[in-house]
Amino acid sequence: MKVINQEVELLCLFDEGIPNPIRLRLTNEEGQKQVVKIDKVLQRDFEKLAGNRMYVYTCQCSINERLRMITLKYEMDTCKWFIYKM
Predict the structure, then answer these.
(1) pLDDT at position 31, please?
(2) DSSP state of 2
(3) pLDDT tens digit string along 28-49?
(4) Burial class (CB in 10 A: 0-12, 13-18, 19+), 10
(5) Residue 30 main-chain phi, psi, to 5 deg
(6) Going by DSSP bridges, is the β-strand pair 80-85/18-27 parallel, antiparallel, or unpaired?
(7) How far apart are the C-alpha atoms of 31 and 18, rounded to whole Å?
(8) pLDDT at 56 over 60
(9) Count H helices, E strands: the chain?
(10) pTM of the model
(11) What is the C-alpha to C-alpha distance for residues 32 and 19, in angstroms, rounded to an integer?
């Protein structure tokens, strides 16, 4: 599993103030944008590191027709999404 910490554009649905990821857009190695649909959210956790509150999601998705597990983080204070592991 490759550890990255890249900001991504993400479409989510809020349910009682908690974001639920639906799909995201990444930039691949060739510099092209790629839309990835989140098939299933397997786990959602909350963490607080150095005062930075984040939701951490473990998700299942298909990237280039291969089933992948990814980790997404949502920073509550900045409202930004990051892909952390792929």
Answers:
(1) 84
(2) -
(3) 778 888 899 999 999 999 999 8
(4) buried
(5) -85, 0
(6) unpaired
(7) 31
(8) yes
(9) 0, 6
(10) 0.87
(11) 26
